[in-house]
Amino acid sequence: MSSRKNILYLFDVDGTLTKPRQRISEELKNFLLNEVKTRVKVGLVSGSDYSKVVEQMDGEEITNQFDYVFCENGVVHYQQGQLKSTQSILNYIGEQTLQRVINFALGYMSKLELPAKRGNFVEFRSSMLNICPVGRSCSQSERDEFSKFDMQHRVRAKFVEALQNEFKHTKLMFALGGQISVDVFPIGWDKTYCLTHVVDENFAEIHFFGDKTTVGGNDYEIYNDDRTIGHKVTSPEDTKEQLKKWLNIE
User: Fold this and answer.
1) Which pLDDT value is given to residue 31?
2) 23 in a labelled binding site
3) What pLDDT was estimated at residue 22?
4) Is 228 annotated as a binding residue?
5) What's the rounded Cα separation, in Å, for the pair 182 and 35?
6) Alpha helices in 64-174, H assignment, sequence order
7) What's the pLDDT at 86?
8) Pair 190, 175: CB distance under 8 Å
9) What is each CA distance from 250 to 9, 31, 209, 243, 246, in whole angstroms?
10) How do 172-177 and 68-71 pair as beta strands?
11) How many helices (H) and strands (E) does the chain have?
């Protein structure tokens, strides 16, 4: 690994390395670890918590082979399976504001008519809230059905607009998370937060690969940040093709 360039390649997970909430393919996993990691340093940056990242990367052994694992936008930082740092949204905004957001979100979602509704509509994570109109306990087919419905009717985009309007005087941001949810986190705790952990490494370049790169998506800020070279991808297969091009891999 000593021949690796002083360059960092950061990857979103959902839609970039895996299909939403599914496991990485053997082919892409081997490609990243055997071809990409031998050339540059590699890191993951996801809005999900550590357990979900581990699940999608096919276990801790694989996850820990990445040089950096930034969960919950990098506010929760792991290296080689060890928690290096974390922050708390509860401590930052307080119980009163947190409950206001939850109550408003539940009230808003109660009025939505969707193809399906299941359970686990609000998930409390260390650094953020994840709000899901269809419910995170939905099946894969229900998830896909909601995703198609959402693209047509902009359910989540309208939800984000309502949240932004209701909480415009707070220190909170709202962004589309993954395929079916909305992420709520303090201003500045988007994926650019992970860059604070690598300042001392003085990388010559930091590349970021993600799919939700438009305004309102949770890759938007880091994709457009002056400190990164952003790459918009459309699928795990597209990610691999772009990597082959950038790293001159045959």
Assistant:
1) 98
2) no
3) 93
4) yes
5) 34
6) 89-93, 95-110, 140-153, 155-166
7) 95
8) yes
9) 18, 12, 20, 10, 11
10) unpaired
11) 9, 11
What SS3 state is found at 14?
strand
0.85 surpassed by pTM: yes
For 188, residues 6+ apart whose C-beta sits below 8 A from its C-beta are none
Contact in structure between 87 and 127 (CB atoms under 8 Å): yes
The sheet that has 129-131: what strands, in order across it? 122-124, 129-131, 181-186, 172-177
136 is in an annotated binding site: yes
How much is the pLDDT for 242? 98
| Encoded amino acid at 15, one letter | G
44 and 68 Cβ atoms separated by less than 8 Å = yes
DSSP string over 116-147: ---S--EEE-SS-EEE-SS-TT--HHHHHHHH
- 3-state DSSP call for residue 64? coil
- The confidence score (pLDDT) of residue 21 equals 82
What is the DSSP pairing of strand 205-210 with strand 229-232? Answer: parallel
Active site residues per annotation: 12, 14
Please list the ranges in the chain whose pLDDT falls under 70: 1-2
Whether residue 211 is annotated as binding a ligand: the answer is yes
Partnered with residue 206 across adjacent β-strands are 8
pLDDT at 3: 83
Per the DSSP assignment, residues forming a β-bridge with 10 are: 43, 208
CB 29 within 8 A of CB 58: yes
Residue 99's nearest CA partner among 63, 135, 129 is 129
DSSP helix/strand/coil, 19: coil
SS3 200: helix
Q: Of 209, 159, 166, 149, which is closest to residue 183 (Cα–Cα)?
A: 159
